[in-house]
Amino acid sequence: MDRTSLLESYYSSMLSELGPSQWWPGETPFEIAVGAILTQNTNWKNVAKAIDQLKAANALSVDAMSALSAERLAELIQPSGFFRLKAKRLRAFLALLNDEYDGQLEALAQEDCATAREKLLAVNGIGPETADSILLYALGQPSFVVDAYTRRILSRHGLLPEDVPYDELRDFFMDVLPEDASLFNEFHALIVRVGKQWCRKSKPLCDECPLATFLP
């Protein structure tokens, strides 16, 4: 089976078993972008607490967050962990928006995907996974997100080594799938759900997994 057909089969099997994911949670593109930065090295439950505190402080917009001191921003996002570091990263992201896009996230979304990705990767603290998450989920750009779950599933299925570089892992999907943000969105979300529920780091439930038939 060629790679395109294989990935289409993976997608169909997961979607049939799990149904649509409706991910990423967030009321606005800016909230989603903030969540993508806050979720680094923590779980979503902690991110949600930080987002709630930002909302309660009416600080979940570019203008409002830009007006906060570094100390106040760190205080509000404390539940997400590494809060001082993440406050610096959020402020660097805000600087990109304010300095180059007049504070408008929508203006960044008007860039072509490659340019927007380059701009995001130039921001201190935004790596490839965070950049692709912002591009795909906040900006609606066709940039496939790969993560530890993707790496684990593909390596256990003998498709790629576990230590494959990020961009090579990303290209495994992007080289053969149509550039469709909605497809990339759902595909990545399904991979995360399978990774959490079945393809666990320890004690995986391979026999019960929707992808069991694809195991070597």
List keywords for this structure.
Endonuclease III, domain 1, 4 iron, 4 sulfur cluster binding, catalytic activity, Endonuclease Iii, domain 2, 2 domains, 216 residues, globular, 60% helix, mainly alpha
Describe the structure.
The protein is mostly helical and 216 residues long. The chain has two domains: 3-22 and 145-214, Endonuclease Iii, domain 2; 29-139, Orthogonal Bundle (Endonuclease III, domain 1). The chain has twelve helices and no strands. The longest helix has 18 residues, at 83-100. It is globular, with a radius of gyration of 18 Å. The model has no long low-confidence stretch (mean pLDDT 97).
Q: What is the structural class? A: mainly alpha
Q: Which CATH-level-2 architecture of the largest domain?
A: Orthogonal Bundle
How many domain units? 2
The CATH C-level name of the largest domain is Mainly Alpha
The overall strand count is 0
Rg measurement, Å:
18 Å
Low-confidence stretches: none
Largest sheet: none
Basic shape: globular
Compact description:
The protein has helices spanning 3-18, 29-38, 44-56, 62-66, 70-76, 83-100, 105-109, 113-121, 128-138, 148-156, 166-174, 181-197. It is mostly helical.
